[in-house]
Amino acid sequence: MTDPQWLDDVEMRAWLGYVRTRDLIAAAIGRDAGRAANLSYVEYSVLAYLADAPGQRLTFADLACALEWSQSRLSHQITRMQKRGLVSRETMPHDQRRTVAKLTPTGGQLLTTAAPAHVRSVRKHMIDVLDRDQLATLAEIYDVLVDHHRDAKSAEPIGRLQTAAPGED
Prior knowledge:
Elements: H1 9-37, H2 41-52, E1 57-59, H3 60-67, H4 71-83, E2 87-92, E3 95-103, H5 105-125, H6 132-153
Antiparallel strand pairs: 1-3, 2-3
Helix pairs in contact: 1-5, 2-5, 3-4
């Protein structure tokens, strides 16, 4: 058995920096979203993907893939959101075995209400902390990482999380 190739100091700083900032930023944005619209970061993500989808609906398989979740986890999340009237479940007319999650008017309105606070929070906790060159470098780094993992999975593009008002790009 060969020894693992341990991370050197720079590699460890990069790895731990990513892990820590991912957790810190997601938690901060989640707290802000909860205060602004009684909406968790996870719920916001689901609503944003549905809002961006054609007809504001996605199959469970496509939504689970976009979120990097199992279909079981998604099903539980959709059930909770369905109880709040944010999404509905439908079967596909041409394939009764497949289930679709659809954004409801209530979910769309809550997303519209939450979007300004969400983008303010993203700016406060990430965008405005960095200068333009740092943002460009970070975007390039994430493009490389996303492409690497998408190529490895041969998956479809994941879309984007909404940082503009619904219906605006």
